[in-house]
Amino acid sequence: MKYRRPRWLRRAGSWLADHRRAAIETLDRLIRAPLGTLMTVAAIAIALALPATLLTITKNLEHLAGDWRRGAALSLFLSPDMDEAAGERLAAALRTRIDIGRVQVISRKAGLAEFRQYSGLGGALDQLKENPMPVVLAVYPAADLVDGDDVDALVEGLSALPGVDFAQADARWVRRLKAILSLLRDGTLLLGGMLALGVVLVVGNTIRLEIENRRDEIQVMDLVGATGAFIRRPFLYAGAWYGLLGGMLAWATVATAIALLQAPVSHLAALYDTELTLVGLGPPESLTLLGLAAVLGVIGSRIAVGRHLRRLRPV
Amino acid sequence: MIEFEHVSKRYPERGDALRDVSFRLGGGEMAFLTGHSGAGKSTLLKLIGLLERPTRGSIRVGDDDLASLPRRRIPAHRRRIGMVFQDHRLLAERSVFDNVALPLVTAGMPRDEIAKRVRAALDQVGLLKFERALPLTLSSGEQQRVGIARAVVGRPEVILADEPTGNLDPELSREIFRLFERFYQVGVSLLIATHDLDLIQSLGHRTLVLKQGRLVADALPRPAEPAP
């Protein structure tokens, strides 16, 4: 005897098949109108690529700034009565602290040599009877201590240590850079929010036209007993496809922009004796971009469908 | 079963389309609805199909009171009714098969059952060989038969037809009415709005006559006078 699946299972299969058919038919419909589809998708892609590119640049700058912050040392100038051995003992004590990454002891001799090299006062220094340089400890804050305020607090604490004359760190540039990056990020998010609204409007308007074009079909489906969900389904899929295709094009635009910028950025970095590799959108960011794009498409479509179907189905 | 009790319908811009209409159409009964243009025939059918709500009175189809039927139950109500229109209302881009399948697809019926039922319905109206054709490649009479197949494919309790032969010549009109009679014979209720008095008289079913929105007659037609 032939096995027959239960009715509920066949209904569920039919429901899934309807979704699959709606998704495929909608994509097919978009492909059959390439120019109109391309224009809508391009408008969505531009709206998404702009904030995505800015966010990627911000991310690269934050990464770079993090490296700079971690690379910046605080200088602890020890009092004249502290010799190298006392400096080593203090350094060993500091190395046990969690807010300090590493400590380097710069001897009086090394300090004088460095001063001679960079000051251009070699001749004058030769006239001195004894080395006036103190022992200096170069203290590198822990990697997670990147906030300018935290660095200030660390400097204040280190200044108060016995044997320390004074501590020096220019945390102002860290704060300024942080403020600029924060402004850039907030501005990008604000711009992204406005452009996301633009995506919703673009998709909504496209779907509105689609509903007008398919008015007869909608009315016939309504007459034969289609539910609102059934009628809305292809339009929601259309919105999702527009968003997804726009997101994919935006992703490609960002990737192209990063690839094009890599050579000039590397050249600039080389002028500062450093290396810099731009990082594009990683898998989580890429998936977020695509998902967000599809969701914005569905939202735009849902708003248009809700408004215009009410007009076509007054009862 | 369809029951109208003191039903009125008023449009703000046009005034009264139906005034105090009461009648009852039993299960498995066939009736014609006639009257001049603007008499209210289409409005009456729209009220049964819940394309409009009555301004006053009560309409019952089976156990449902249409005046208070919630919106979410309207699709299920419409699936209990097969509707046939003068202009066929077929989807030009979809095949005959897909047009007829539409009520079953919207009801979420399994695909194998849809195929079986659609072919049976097309067979009933004699169009099985055209299942892959597009509607616009068919004659007007064939298109109307596709519309009828779509109306009956969901095995409705009631078929409503609004001037189904309005665009057809007399021979095709008789053919369409013969189809309706076949459904009547298997127990489906039919309410058919038509101007075609000759056909009404020749078929001899109950006839409701509307005049300016009022039901002015509800009777079996008189047999034709014998020729002197």
List the defining traits of the structure above.
heterodimer; A: 315 residues; alpha+beta; 2 domains; four-stranded antiparallel sheet; B: 228 residues; alpha/beta; Rossmann fold; 10 strands
Structure description:
The complex is a heterodimer of chains A (315) and B (228). Chain A has helices at 7-31, 34-71, 84-95, 108-119, 122-126, 148-159, 172-213, 215-223, 228-271, 283-312; strands at residues 74-78, 100-106, 136-141, 164-168. By secondary structure, chain A is of the alpha+beta class. Chain A has a 4-stranded antiparallel sheet. Chain A is elongated, with a radius of gyration of 32 Å. Chain B is an alpha/beta fold. Chain B has a domain at 1-29 and 39-80 and 190-221: 3-Layer(aba) Sandwich (Rossmann fold), CATH 3.40.50.300. Chain B is built from 7 helices and 10 strands. Chain B has helices at 41-48, 74-79, 96-106, 111-124, 140-152, 170-185, 197-203, and strands at residues 2-11, 15-25, 30-34, 56-61, 64-65, 81-85, 158-162, 189-193, 206-211, 214-219. A 6-stranded mixed sheet of chain B has the order 6-7-8-3-9-10, with helices on both faces. In chain B, strands 2-1-4-5 form a 4-stranded antiparallel sheet, with helices on one face. In chain B, a hairpin with a 2-residue loop joins strand 4 (56-61) and strand 5 (64-65). In chain B, helix 4 (111-124) packs across helix 5 (140-152) and helix 5 (140-152) runs parallel beside helix 6 (170-185). The longest helix of chain B is centred in the last third of the chain and has 16 residues, at 170-185. Chain B starts with a strand and ends in a 9-residue tail after the last strand. The mean pLDDT of chain B is 90. The chains are: A alpha+beta (315), B alpha/beta (228). At the A-B interface, helix 1 and helix 8 of A face helix 2, helix 3 and helix 4 of B.
